[in-house]
Amino acid sequence: MPASVAAATSHRAPRRGSSRQVSVAVLRFGRLAAMWVVALLILVAGVWGSWGTAQHVMLTKGREQGTIEVARCGADSCSGPYAPLSSGSQARARVVIEKTVAVRKGQTYTVVIKPGGDEVVRSGPAGVLYAWVPMGGALLLASVVVAGGLGRARWGWVLAGSGMALLTAAFLAM
Length: 174
What we know:
The chain is of the alpha+beta class. It has five helices and six strands. The protein has helices at residues 3-10, 19-58, 124-131, 133-149, 153-173, and strands at residues 65-69, 72-73, 77-84, 92-98, 108-113, 119-122. Strands 1-3-4-6-5 form a five-stranded mixed barrel. Helix 2 runs antiparallel to helix 3 (124-131), helix 3 crosses helix 5 and helix 4 packs antiparallel against helix 5 (153-173). The model has no long low-confidence stretch (mean pLDDT 89). This is Integral membrane protein.
């Protein structure tokens, strides 16, 4: 190689990667970032959906606690008389509880009254597990995103196992 050609090429920076390689790396990073955002949004939505009921069941200090004997059930809710168990709570002729497969006419359940109304939610272990059912579903859904979209199969199995354990425990407790 002539000296003039060698001198001309020595001033050029070495080529590190083509624009195609950079584009592939940026797209891969974007896909992973998007999947992480989707997985986190699913989990946050599960907590958000569960907390509306769970706060009343888990943070019972200062709330009225008692029992409901289910006397009547409609399409979406059941009702019956309320008997107080906590001090300061008053008996009520009628309170309303959400109708689920676990609420049956003629049965008595321990409940907590939601502030500002006559609506009650189940308390105790069954109530806590039932309140977190939306989180169990979110864990199952997020496991698919984590395992498939992010390629983290072990983490996907952990999330799926946690969701299944929560849903199974809620089913058995009801």
